[in-house]
Specification:
alpha+beta, Alpha-Beta Plaits, four-stranded antiparallel beta sheet
């Protein structure tokens, strides 16, 4: 059976208080649950933000390391370009002309630096047949006398088709730098 309360009627103080209690109690419960929900949300956001800060610090460190290494590599490239432009213009031009005359492919040039004894060393890689490579070495050391060949490194590689081979020769070119 339903109990009917008449608010406007003449109820005693205790009945009004009981009616008020049952109408306010759900509001208190709802507010209490919402407060807990907000608290739990705040705590989870705190933990998520803490993890994000740690990740961002790690990323910042990684980016700083990457930037420093990139700056170092760019500095080396710049130094190699300056060194090769100043010290190797004549040598590279002569080698390139000789390679074209002998039918060789000038593949790579890499300066290796200046030693304590003021010897400027570069690594040069050419591609072609064995006789032409030996003619190039003879022309550079004996005919033109523009450099000294320190060592040779021959590598036989298969071409893309798989049936033919190509010969790569890496040699170290040296010059004494006078101060």
């Amino acid at each position: 059976m339903l109990k009917y309360f008449d608010i406007s009627g003449k109820n005693d103080y205790r009945a009004k208080w009981q009616l008020l209690l049952w109408s306010v109690l759900p509001l208190f419960i709802i507010c209490y649950l919402l407060a807990f929900k907000k608290t739990f949300t705040t705590i989870s956001e705190f933990h998520n933000n803490k993890e994000k800060v740690q990740l961002s610090l790690l990323r910042k460190d990684s980016v700083a390391i990457y930037d420093s290494k990139l700056d170092a590599v760019n500095g080396w490239k710049k130094q190699y370009m300056l060194d090769s432009a100043v010290m190797d213009a004549h040598v590279i031009a002569t080698m390139n002309l000789s390679c074209n005359e002998l039918g060789l492919n000038f593949k790579e040039y890499k300066p290796l630096g200046l030693s304590v004894q003021n010897v400027w060393t570069r690594k040069v890689v050419v591609q072609g047949d064995f006789k032409s490579i030996l003619k190039l070495v003879y022309e550079l050391e004996q005919v033109s006398k523009i450099c000294r060949i320190a060592s040779l490194d021959f590598q036989k590689k298969k071409t893309g088709s798989g049936h033919d081979f190509e010969l790569d020769c890496g040699f170290y070119v040296q010059n004494v730098i006078k101060k």
